[in-house]
Each structure stands twice: as structure tokens, then as C-alpha cells.
Amino acid sequence: MKLHVVEIDSVVELQAHLDEGLGFSNVVLQGLDLTAMTAPLLAANLHCATFIGCLMSSELLVHAVETGAVVFPRMSGVPYRTGRHRLYSVDELYDGFDPDQPASYATTLDAVVYQHWLKSGRATDANVRETLARRLHDHGVTDALDEAVAGERIVAVMGGHGLARTDPGYAAVARMSRSLARSGYMMASGGGPGAMEATHLGPWLCTYGDEALDRSLDLLAAAPGFEPPEEWLAAAFRVRAEFPQTLDAPRSLGIPTWLYGHEPPNAFATDIAKYFANSVREDGLLTIATHGIVFTPGSAGTVQEVFQDATQNHYQTVGAPSPMVFFGTEFWTHEVPVLDVLRSVGAGQSWLELITVTDDEQEVVEAIASHAR
């Protein structure tokens, strides 16, 4: 039997829990400032409670440990919170960025954390304290991600980070993603530039007409690629200013990583699950996309994702197989001919019927929509 755990992510929830006289066995408190709640918590039996990344008085900390709670304190010495209980937003990651002063990017949380990542050993040379802090951070992101996607119909788009904003393929991805978002799907990507950014531009402009996309593409053309990131980001912020997100606009999910921190998160994803561990990030993105994945032309990373998704479909590790839609016939049949390999590996398997190869944007949308799950 699955153990029922209660998660408390706000002081308001905690106060309601106390008011109802409920116990704390198998209760998890995440990322809370508990300094004002010391007195009522000192009066509570905290046996089997778990505190992750909470601010606690020394008195409360001693009481929690002595009564049998597990405490993972908020770690100091790192520029990120180790006990996150929510996803990132553009406003948080880019707080302080001024598109009229692109150099201000260096002061943002995203840039500061990336510099810390570089200086603290990157992926392979970090010390044990740093790796623990990163794992605690990523654990919180995963927990928040699970809550964010619950009940959503997720479709992911995979493709190259180097796709220029001026490339016809960029506009095509934005249109397809917009159509899918209007059909009720939550669009997801690796959260970076190129095809990933286009994936989120579509939903961002869902409530506007076609002219908004044309105008946005004109604004973005001022910085076609993500290098330098300052100008690339400034152009995106100008689009956001001219076409602010409306209350009825759909959410979209970006899942970037500081491993590729030179590729900043795009500014059009509403929910951002940014990780340190790229392996967790990639597997998570493929796992949540239970309503299909659209593969657009890309490089080694995109090809890797093709075979990761095929493996999930083949062994049904996350449930029934889902559509694999390859956009760009010439690319996927001649330049990077993965289809023959997939057909050999999946010979006799029903998931091969879910593969579509096309150059038609509407056929991409129909291939996803025709597969009810």
C-alpha cells in the first residue's frame, strides 16, 4: 500500500493544519519560513515529520530532531534555494534584467547560478557539499513539476537549440505549438533557445491573432541566435512587453539545465523546471509527454531523445505508447535516417503505428490529436 504523505507548501496551509488539530506524522513541510510559527510547533509532536529547506529557530530545530522529525536545513553558501517547493518563472530567473541595458543579464539569478556552477566544479568536479545542495534543489524541482503537470495533457517538442529565429522552421514550430495549445495541450520543451523557444512562443500568443506572431517574429529577428544571450533575451522581453500574457492564455512548461547554462532559458515558458542534473531533466521531459512528442530537426541531443522515447514506447515504462511525430521528411529520412533503425528495433511492435513523418504542420497537429489517451 502506498504511504499517504501530506505536503505543506505555505504558512497558510500550515496554520490550517494546526487549527484542525492534525498531527505531523508523514507530513512534509517544504521551503517555509517557520520563524513566526515557532510557538505552535514547539507544542506539537513532530514525530515522523519532514522539514525540507525551512527556516527554523534553533529552539524549533532542536525540538524537531528530539521528537523524531527529519530535517534537511536550507543550505547556505550557494546562490540557489535547496528546498524549493515551486517551479521557477521568468520573473524570478530574470529579476533585474532590463532589455534597454542588456548587460544587466549578468546580475540575474539565472546568470549568477550559472557562474556559481562553473566555479564550483561543473558536472564532474564539484565537492560533496555542492553536489548534495544540487540534489536537494533538483528534488524540490521534481516535486513541484509533478504537481504542475498533474491532470495536464503534455505534448513535447524536441529540436535544435541553434534554430535561428529567422528560419522558416522556427515559425512553423511556433504555429504548430500554438495550434496544439489551443486544442488544450500543455506544450513542453527543453526550455532553451531555437526550436525550444518557438515551442513556447506559440502558446504565449494563443489569445492573439496571426498578426501578433508575425510582429513577434519581426521583433525577434533583431537577435536571430542566442549568442550573445543579452541581446537575444532583450528581443524576447520586447515581445513580452508588446504582447503581454492574458489571463486566459495557456501555460507552457520549459525544462532547461545549468549544464547548458550558456543557453539561457527562453522568456516565453510560463513554468520553468530548471535542473542541475541533465539526466534527470531529459528523462523527466520524455516521461511527462504522455500525449506525444514532435521531433524537429536537431543534432545529437535530439537524436538521443528519439531513441529514449522509442525505448519508453517499446517497453511501455510510463504507460501506453504515445505518438512520435517527425517534422521534416528530408531531414529524418536522409540527413539523419533514424526511421529505419526504429522500424528494425520495433519490428512487430504496435508502437510503430504511432510514428508519423511529415512536412505538413496540420498533419503534425492531427497526428497528436487523433491519439486519445
What's the CATH architecture name of the largest domain?
A: 3-Layer(aba) Sandwich
Helix and strand sequence: EHEHEHEHHHEHEHHHEEHEHEHHEH
Question: Radius of gyration in whole Å, from Cα?
Answer: 22 Å
How many distinct beta strands? Answer: 11
The largest pleated sheet is described as:
7 strands, parallel
Low-confidence segments: none
Structure description:
The structure is a single chain. This protein is of the alpha/beta class and 373 residues long. The protein folds into two domains: 6-72; 142-369, Rossmann fold (3-Layer(aba) Sandwich), CATH 3.40.50. The chain has 15 helices and eleven strands. A seven-stranded parallel sheet has the order 8-7-6-5-9-10-11, sandwiched between helices. Strand 1, helix 1 (11-19) and strand 2 form a beta-alpha-beta unit. It is globular and about 65 Å long. 42% of the residues are buried.
Could you give a quick summary of the protein structure above?
The chain is of the alpha/beta class and 373 residues long.
Task: Summarize this structure as a short list of keywords or feature phrases.
alpha/beta, 15 helices, Rossmann fold, single chain, 2 domains, four-stranded parallel sheet, seven-stranded parallel sheet
Give the SSE map:
Elements: E1 6-8, H1 11-19, E2 27-30, H2 38-42, E3 50-52, H3 58-66, E4 70-72, H4 90-93, H5 109-119, H6 128-149, E5 154-158, H7 168-182, E6 186-189, H8 195-204, H9 210-220, H10 229-242, E7 252-254, E8 271-272, H11 278-288, E9 293-295, H12 300-315, E10 324-327, H13 329-335, H14 338-345, E11 355-358, H15 361-369
Parallel strand pairs: 1-2, 2-3, 3-4, 5-6, 5-9, 6-7, 7-8, 9-10, 10-11
